[in-house]
Amino acid sequence: xxxxxxxxxxxxxxxxxxxxxxxxxxxxxxxxxxxxxxxxxxxxxxxxxxxxxxxxxxxxxxxxxxxxxxxxxxxxxxxxxxxxxxxxxxxxxxxxxxxxxxxxxxxxxxxxxxxxxxxxxxxxxxxxxxxxxxxxxxxxxxxxxxxxxxxxxxxxxxxxxxxxxxxxxxxxxxxxxxxxxxxxxxxxxxxxxxxxxxxxxxxxxxxxxxxxxxxxxxxxxxxxxxxxxxxxxxxxxxxxxxxxxxxxxxxxxxxxxxxxxxxxxxxxxxxxxxxxxxxxxxxxxxxxxxxxxxxxxxxxxxxxxxxxxxxxxxxxxxxxxxxxxxxxxxxxxxxxxxxxxxxxxxxxxxxxxxxxxxxxxxxxxxxxxxxxxxxxxxxxxxxxxxxxxxxxxxxxxxxxxxxxxxxxxxxxxxxxxxxxxxxxxxxxxxxxxxxxxxxxxxxxxxxxxxxxxxxxxxxxxxxxxxxxxxxxxxxxxxxxxxxxxxxxxxxxxxxxxxxxxxxxxxxxxxxxxxxxxxxxxxxxxxxxxxxxxxxxxxxxxxxxxxxxxxxxxxxxxxxxxxxxxxxxxxxxxxxxxxxxxxxxxxxxxxxxxxxxxxxxxxxxxxxxxxxxxxxxxxxxxxxxxxxxxxxxxxxxxxxxxxxxxxxxxxxxxxxxxxxxxxxxxxxxxxxxxxxxxxxxxxxxxxxxxxxxxxxxxxxxxxxxxxxxxxxxxxxxxxxxxxxxxxxxxxxxxxxxxxxxxxxxxxxxxxxxxxxxxxxxxxxxxxxxxxxxxxxxxxxxxxxxxxxxxxxxxxxxxxxxx
Length: 801
Hints:
By secondary structure, the protein is mostly beta strands. Helices cover 12% and strands 38% of the residues.
């Protein structure tokens, strides 16, 4: 797969660009905005001045610009919230005139209100919901129009993790004819699937905005990867004026190219509307043909094949970039996670950016899409540190009763054609014991997760969850009956005394592997899986050794901002990758458990004292610089049949298993290992005693950037010794200088306590490395120069075209 078409798809939005004769037009609306941090009453008026406001392009997250401060909350990364205003002056594009015009926001964090020329278009409290307003009634056909957006995130401690502030996702301008397909109005399902044939069903919801009824010809055509039609269906239907109509089409697909994790084959579904023989609208979406099934005794099946879901939970942010993350960043991250053995992702704990689901479709990830972290009652948001001090109680529960069902419905409608998505989650840890719900059973039994001690009668009763869960599940099923409904339960011992689990098709267990056997026997028809799990090998063994447990979702795939410890820690370090996207020790352990291709990775740590209990996680570093006379425990993470360890060329023995260890007296030089299959060497890894930092090493992930879409290069920076070996203890300050049409979007070193401004060109390395984000701003050659006192510099030549 080449990057260019992937980015074009991501940046053109929900619908691919239609052919010239079609009436629908959609453009990116991300450029040439003005921004002001702070409330300026009256800024919704077109006549208001924004002359001194900051010019910027979207997406934009003002919270990540900081500064970090102990006065803010650890839950949200010790970063500020506040109130911000955005304004954009624009003329109606020539091709948009005499049409219905809409503005589409993929996400605004949060409590947004939008005005056009002083007229309020609407409000949306959720920072994760995608929404659209019609501009037509207030548009000026000639002269400038002013779009104004107020974002109110003054309750900064309103989430258990960092959610950013501002218009942090893409914005699109859309024009349609009066007869047009509604937003998210195409629903594609494949109710029967086999290797030889499949049935495709398409429901098309469209609007007739005209004053007269119209006979509309609705046609859906499925095109293969070469653009050739493989199936089509057509229906003529009478559309009442000023109303909505739905057409239901069915077609057969011969010898379908099935979508799977290993082969994520995609089709293009082209849906057209025609009136009086003339095309009036066309919508194109990528879809996949596949079947999914969960069984209470045998687990998960994709296209009839039983498989384990090797899952990771992820949040929206990318460290220094906050939540305004370009798609290239997630593409790099996802490819690393898939190489580590991951085949499934949990969108924790909210809908994510539009392009991320397309990446999952294209790269072959199975997705749990999740709507909420709380319902009608708030959870603890820690201010002084995780589980420290007095928590705040702000959050989405403040608007749940009014907006919850709509937010859920919109999430499902928006994403229901994504073949990657296999389940809808209506909540994460809603039943966390005593945070907020409580039940008498908490006075007894085994409860690994609990806030407070035992039953708290002043807290809302757990029985309240059942009716809400039933209502939410019904909303999701009505929007998409083709996928199961789930939730991630933290207090199963408590929820089992309510109607909550019965409202679900699949019941996720967070950190409660010990309950699997008992509950499987007690509730034989319940589909049980691990919706959030720790890194311990025993947690994976509970999945791998039990056919009825289909999944494990590790917390977490990538380190993330917020949910932090005490100041100065800004982030949570539970990931397989750090915030710069560099693999950590846990990544290689997981790769040794979840993959089969030959791999080998060595780490060393001080040998534990005799009889010492093992730590919760195996720790070590990929270094061979230790004090003289050190006694070391060397571990090899591997998928091979046997591994042989060598110190300065002398064999220290061959061992089996995917995590063999050797106790080794330290000697400077080279520690190496060979991995064997059928007595043949299939993989090698070595650690080298390194010298002092001597030079900077620079590795761009690409050298050509698409200027039109403001393409991004990610440059991996390493500090090395004279021989070119990475020095993982180096923390030199690196200075970045750019020439040409580019800007420094940010620098991330992965340090959980780093408070450097991410856009300043000076940044310290952490563990000998950092990541530099360079974004194209025009066409031409781009030069990147990295320097540091006492180190040889490095440079890279890029080009935007």
